[in-house]
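Tutorial sheet, problem 5. The two components below are modelled jointly, 887 residues in total.
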Amino acid sequence: MEQAPPDPERLLQPAPLEPLGNPDAGLESVVVEEADRPRDEGPGDGTMTENNFWLKKIEISVSEAEKRTGRNAMNMQETYTAYLIETRSVEHIDGQSVLTDSLWRRYSEFELLRNYLLVCYPHIVVPPLPEKRAEFVWHKLSADNMDPDFVERRRIGLENFLLRVASHPILCRDKIFYLFLTQEGNWKETVNETGFQLKADSRLKALNATFRVKNPDKRFTELKHYSDELQSVISHLLRVRARVADRLYGVYKVHGNYGRVFSEWSAIEKEMGDGLQSAGHHMDVYASSIDDILEDEEHYADQLKEYLFYAEALRAVCRKHELMQYDLEMAAQDLASKKQQCEELATGTVRTFSLKGMTTKLFGQETPEQREARIKVLEEQISEGEQQLKSKNLEGREFVKNAWADIERFKEQKNRDLKEALISYAVMQISMCKKGIQVWTNAKECFSKM
Amino acid sequence: MSGGPPKALPSTGPHSLRDMPHPLAGSSSEEAVGGDSTPSPDLLMARSFGDKDLILPNGGTPAGTSSPASSSSLLNRLQLDDDIDGETRDLFVTVDDPKKHVCTMETYITYRITTKSTRVEFDLPEYSVRRRYQDFDWLRNKLEESQPTHLIPPLPEKFVVKGVVDRFSEEFVETRRKALDKFLKRITDHPVLSFNEHFHVFLTAKDLNAYKKQGMALLTRVGESVKHVTGGYKLRSRPLEFAAVGEYLDTFALKLGTIDRIAQRIIKEEIEYLVELREYGPVYSTWSALEGELAEPLEGVSACIGNCSAALEELTDDMTEDFLPVLREYILYSDSMKSVLKKRDQVQAEYEAKLEAVAVRKEERPKVPADVEKCQDRMECFNADLKADMERWQNNKRQDFRQLLMGMADKNIHYYEKCLMAWESIIPLLQEKQEAK
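Model answer (structure tokens):
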């Protein structure tokens, strides 16, 4: 079970980077402004009883998409798509839903929200957004962002993202997320004012840590490999699936030519004419059936894509662990060297190389007072360092514990979702086969009447 | 020969099953012998062939004392010949058992030709000979020479078209065997061609090469006389019915050509689809190796796609082997028909020219000279033969295409049924609840 979540009601302050080890935090639910929105909080011991309490209370949907033109940061005209987000609160008793909030957001705002969540909840596997640009397209699909089919699939993906966040036991309580759904104007400024960008770890630092860390938790190392391989295999799968779709499209469409030629042939035949003509019609039906079939399959591809992107989110959590672990190792190393220095100064033996030692040799010994002063400084630093190390250690362990809890939750979710996706894929194939049997049986009957 | 059309040979026209004499009961007699009965092979051996009106001792119900094996094989033959108008049948020919012969000079395939007949012309009730493609080719040429007024069925192509096909591969040999079998059966069905001397020799001679060397032994009178038509006569106009046939054949061949191209294209697309599927399935396997709970479901999907791939391969093979060759055969058939039409035109042209020449010369006597009359006979014979053949051809064409297209539909239905089964069978696997680890 997770520790108490960061307090979402704290006005305009980001949630702390990690849940505090302090078990007293997060108990109170300060309902400050949102008097019209009663919020259930968990019992006072900080444990969560309702994982999806948002979903119980509200329904979120991205119901529309609209093309807009506006001016961008460089005052140039641009076209973009805006999405309508509607939030409904569900009354307990009669199950009726009442529209409580409705606002428009564009894709870049979703991105901002997600970046915020990534920085503020590094131990959480943050749900991914649908792809920015259409990838893994097979030739019939448009790669154009303005294409209505793409926009429609993106709308569904964005809705899915919001639902995932809303159903996450920790993320759902985030203030900024709440405002995203409720405060149309000024939201961007609000997010930026949290200063979350400053907390973001630099990519360079993270990369450095990945290479240099000595003792990461084995589970995270394994998880990292898993997510790399998952990314690779799902990418491959999506690429080949797109090619398969392309070929299947070709097979079906060529059959349409039978329709025309049977019709022409039937014109010169006497008894065979009718049978040929009607069979030709079935061939046309067959050829046109592929469009719907492949459209359905795109939904399956989208489900796979979500987990392709989820793999990246998993990697992010692993990276954070490596960074923290590296930080810890560096702090420990630093402490150890200071302790060593201190010892050398105290006992007068020089075992390690130090600049002071060199200069002492060159320019003469320092006075006992100087030495005392230095030892004092070092001792202070050591004491500070020990405190820091202790808290870093604690933080590290907390992180690992909480991250692993979310990872377990994620694994369950992934297994459930992907199983469902495979089942729906199988169902699609079954439907396609049945349609095929139907069409060819009809054609066969027409042929039999020739 | 008189002016009337030649009497049609053994075809006695449609008979009810009741009246129909047993195929092996009478020989080439037109008379209906009462009662239907099934023979046994032994009976074939024992019979005396002079007796046209022999009633089988087993006379009575078809379910009599005959051995089931023979009656079912008989039934098979009847169905193969698609004889729905109930002709009497006294000649059965099959092509089977291809064998490869490796000699110093060349390697080639021979086929076994089995003939069973009660006809007088056959000394034995049964013959079994081996023939190779060039023997069939020889036969066809001989038939064209000796029966120029008739439509000779086409042979499968002599040379392998693409050069990529292995002419000793099982599939190629089987496709060819079927086509050769069809060829002989069509001749067998023909009331005139089946009595052709060359055909008889082809079916029965132990040493065909010796006979070939003898040269053309027998030619019908009509054949000889038609051979002498050197051509060069210009036809005024084709009679309406033959013109219609000509136009029909032109369009027909065109449409068949289009269908052939479409079918080839479909097979090509299906093969490319198959190639992708073969890469697609295994990726699920690779994924399965990474997972725990999902391992079995993913592996199941991989296996499923593999099954669909196998089914698709079968479909493309079947279409290539069974569908395309028959289609092409009909294109060849309509080409033959067109050339026969042209020959007919020649005969008519000669007649018209001669008639005109006579009209120019002042003739007091109203009687038409003998050779012009001969020409007229020739033309009318030709017309009659051709008409009969056209009708027969149209009927067979209808049956053949019905069978062909239904076959195509069937193959596709079976393909989808196999895929359906594969996908339906993994649903329970996918829905299975895993035990908590």
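Marking note: The first strand of chain A starts at residue 58 and ends at 71. Full credit if you identified this.
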